[in-house]
From TrEMBL:
InterPro entries: HNH (IPR002711), HNH_nuc (IPR003615), NA-targeting_endonuclease (IPR052892)
Magnesium among keywords: no
Protein name in UniProt: HNH endonuclease
Keywords: Endonuclease, Hydrolase, Nuclease
Ranges for domain HNH nuclease: 13-61
CDD domains linked: HNHc
GO molecular function, one term: endonuclease activity
Domain of life: Bacteria
Pfam families, per the entry: HNH
PANTHER family in the cross-refs: OS07G0170200 PROTEIN, SLL1193 PROTEIN
Length: 80
């Protein structure tokens, strides 16, 4: 396994996020099977759950590393 997404902390945080909600923060539909980084790694984001939101793999890959401005108003996940 390669890259930071393979680490144990990321997997634990991803599971915690998906346990709270499986609503994709990018398209608003249920069934999210992974998480998206609000601030991408390439912009200094971390694996903390405060930086993670549920997402479909397809939505996640479609977004890529673009800045999250388009999605800034989507989702209310409280005080994570
Ligand atoms: Zn989606």
């Amino acid at each position: 396994m390669t890259g930071r997404t393979a680490n144990r902390r990321y997997r634990a945080e991803r599971a915690a996020v998906l346990a709270v909600s499986d609503v994709c923060w990018l398209c608003g539909e249920r069934g999210a099977d992974t998480v998206d980084h609000v601030v991408p790694y390439s912009h200094g984001g971390t694996d903390n759950r405060a930086n993670l939101r549920p997402a479909h793999r397809s939505c996640n890959s479609a977004r890529g590393n673009r800045a999250p401005t388009r999605f800034a108003d989507l989702g209310d996940f409280g005080d994570w």
